[in-house]
Structures are given as structure tokens and as C-alpha cells.
Amino acid sequence: MSQVKMIAVDMDGTFLTSKNDYDREMFQQLYQKMLEKDVKFVVASGNQYYQLKSFFPELDKELAFVAENGAYIVNEEEEVFCGELSQETVHEILDVLGNYENVHTILCGRESAYINKNEPQTFIDHGSIYYHRLKPVDDLYAVSDDTLFKFALTVPAGKVEQILADLTAEVGGKITPVSSGHEDVDLIIPGVHKANGLMKLQELWGIKDEEVAAFGDSGNDLEMLKHAGYSYAMGNAHPKVKEVAKEIIETNNDNGVLKQIEKLLSE
To answer: Kindly report the CA angle at 229 between 226 and 235, in degrees rounded to 5?
Structure first.
């Protein structure tokens, strides 16, 4: 196979340990090696750009981020792509979500994410871990002065597969439900997923599919892993993810991603 020229990593359950951190010293050494070999490092996550940046305080100005599952792409602080849902679609989806009991919703946009201020405080606190810009509002229907591109849902434990199936049946034509780990479900613009984000960056940099290495653990990583020439599922990944990846590596808590990057860079 060809030499790797781009490494794309999912964050939660993949690059980050369950303590929500990574081996920063090891990454720094590997990142220097990537620079020497002209290998691009891409953060590809369902989370918000402003949250993802916070994990790389020294490097955020030089990295590329495929944030919000591909709806918002930034390279070296320059916006490359921003998806958009029509106001009509946003309202239709909110109507449908209103019928689901115990499903909590965050509406995601370019400037901020939005949450109903009457949501339980535990959910608001949970949301603010993944959305550093999270604005409590009186009414999600009234959010209109932002470009909106995603819904992030927290669903009751053990109900992810059922709710994914139900939502796909109800609104699958307008929006695509995907699992994003942590008993969470994201509703994304059809076709606007992580693989689409990687393709936009590849175009920018002249990188072929077979020169891409991708790492993931959840349903929202499937397209990216199918797309990449080198694809790795974490030892802790969902069974569906292990099926599509070319290789299964150690878990996120065993530094699986960094060990594999080290191997790739020494080839």
C-alpha cells in the first residue's frame, strides 16, 4: 500500500482515554515526526469545534478539524465547509423529537449549540462537556440567527438502537441518525459525514484515499473507516465498526491510536 499522508482520528472512545485525555508527551513526539514526513493530522469528531480545539492548545492554529460529524470543517483556523439545515427542516425534526419521551436535544450551529433552559441541569452539564459554546434558550424553535447543521440527542440507556431505527423510519429522508457513543445519537445532514469532511481536506491537499489512515469506535465513524485506505477500529469499538475496519487495534485506554501511528510513521 502507499505511504500514509493523512491521519484522521475520532476523539471520544478512540484518541481520548475514558479519563478524557491522551498521552500528550507521546503525541508531541509523534506530531513532530508527522511534520517532518509531511503527514497531515486531522481531528474528526461529532463534537463541537470549540471543544475539540481545547484538547490541542499549542497546536489548534495549525491543525485541521472535521467537527460536528463533518458539518463544520476548519483548517488552520480557516473555515473550509459549513453545512446548513433549512429552518423548515429544523422545525420538522423538533416536532418529531417532541414525541419522544426522555430524549434530550441540543441544536448545533456554527456560532454555538443551543439547549432548552428547562432541561435538567445534569443534561446541561453533560452537554457542556462536548459543547464549550452552549447557550440556554427559552425555545429551540426560536433559534434563527445562526447556521444550524446538527442535532445531538441523549437517549435513555439501552435504547440507542431502537431510537436510531425509529428515527430513521420517521425522518431518514431529511436527516440521518447515527450513534455517536456515550448512549448519544446525532442527527446529521444526509451525506455530510466524516468521510465527506476528509474528502474536502484531501482535495485541498492533493491526498488520495489510499493515503488516508482513519481511527474510530462508533457508528458515526463507519463512512470514514470505509473510505480510508488504512482503517482501524479500537479494541473497545462497536461490533459494526470492527466489521468494516481493516484492522482492530488496542483500546483507547491502552493508547491504541498513538501506538499504531508510531508504527505507521516508522514504515
So the answer is: 65
